[in-house]
Structure formats: C-alpha cells, structure tokens
Amino acid sequence: MKRIVMCVLVLCMCMLSATALAAKKTGSLQPEDFGYKGVALGDDAASLAEKLGEADFDTDIVVLDQTVKAYIYGSDLKIAVDPRNNKVVAILCKDKDYKARDGVTYGSTRAKLLQVYGKGDKLKRDGEIYYVYRNPEDEKQKLMLSLETTNYYVESFLITSLPLTEEEQAEYDMGEFPTELEDNQDDNRLSGGFNSRGEWWAQYRVNDHITVGI
Q1: What is the dotted CATH code of the domain comprising 31-163?
Q2: Is the model's pLDDT at 205 over the cut of 60?
Q3: Inter-residue contact 63 to 83 (CB < 8 Å)
Q4: CA separation for the pair 76, 62 (Å, rounded)
Q5: FRET label pair with 84: which of 11, 137, 172, 177, CA 20 to 30 Å apart?
Q6: Burial class, 139, CB count within 10 angstroms (exposed 0-12 / middle 13-18 / buried 19+)
C-alpha cells in the first residue's frame, strides 16, 4: 500500500514539474516590447533627439502602405512619424547587434519567440513573413518580427501602430482635428480630419436631421 502511495506522489510531482516547465517555455508580452530604447509609439518627434540623438536626415518612406516621415539613424534604424501630427507610428530596426527583451535578436528562432513572447500570428505581406504580436493594453500597437523565409529566424523588428485591418485603416484615415475647438466656439462640426492622402474631410450638422460632408 505504501508503495502505491509513493508511486502516486512521485507521479504527481513529475506532472507538476512538467507543467511548470511548459509554462516557463511559453512567454507573454510586456509593455517594453512595444518600444525601442526609450522611444514609444505616440511619442512626439521633438523628443527623438533627446532619446536617440540627432538623426542623420529625414525623408518620406512607405510603411505598411502608409506614407510617413522617417528619421534615419544610420542604415539600420528608422523612426517614422505620422506627418499629420508628428507622432511616432513606426520603429524599424535591422541592427544585427540589437537585443530586445530576454535576448531576442537577429537570428532568434521561432522557439525563442515562443519562449519570450508566447504565440504570435503569422502574416504574409509584401513578400515578407512576419510574426505579429499585439499589445494587450492597446490592440493598435503591434510588434512585427520579420522572418527569413526558409529557416524562419528573425531578420528585423517593426514596432508600429499603423493599420493592418480594414477597420484600423478606416480609423487611421480619419486622423484628427489639428486644433481643439474653443469651449465658447459655435461650431456644428461633428467629425473630420485628414485622410491617408492628406485630404481634409469633415461632417457638419445642418439641423437635427441632416448632416453634410466636404
């Protein structure tokens, strides 16, 4: 009888150890995964010089089908801002020496990504293969790891709030008003902003039943 009890206890301990080991192998996302060396999505472009130093130059580039203004740091780092409000919307890093949390770097395998971040969504886009992780605290923020297409190891990092879905695209196109209305300003405007082509649009209230757009 004692042998049976001992066997059961040993079996239970083995099962608990295996469960703990499996849990340790599967990671989870953290807020720091959606930033780069102190730069976070939504930061103002004016803060980049303080955090990263002066950029080599700036230029317009296309990221995920959106035209953005990019501050270029060497050949391996681009910080992109939305030209409508100068807020950071993408961080592109191809630095082979850069290490993200827990040693994720160029050449990291899918097993390493699972261990650190957990399971991501596989996405094929523009001839690239990505593992995509969304920030649980803000679904618009995404960590997109570009993978080599044969052996599936990490080649670059893209941290972005640019749209991937039609719903996100529609919201991104809406933009935002460049200035807030004064409290005492009489304005019948309901909504508006700049679309992805830089064109202004707005809706105005004519009366309680009719709105017009421009």
Answers
A1: 3.40.33.10
A2: no
A3: no
A4: 16
A5: 137
A6: exposed
DSSP the chain: -HHHHHHHHHHHHHHHHHHHHHHHHS----GGGGEETTEETT-BGGGHHHHH---SEEEEEEETTEEEEEEEETTTEEEEEETTTTEEEEEEE--TT-B-GGG-BTT--HHHHHHHH---EEEEETTEEEEEEEETTEEEEEEEEEE-TTT--EEEEEEE-S--SHHHHHHHHH---SSPPPTT----EEEEEE-TTS-EEEEEESSSS-EEE-
Listed by start position, the domains of the chain span 31-163, 175-213
Q: What tokens appear for 206 in the block?
A: 């004519």
The fraction of the chain above a pLDDT of 90, given in percent, is 67
Residue whose token pair is 């066997």 = 7
Residue 188 is predicted with a pLDDT of 53
Residue 6: the pLDDT is 55
**How does the average pLDDT of the chain come out, rounded?**
82
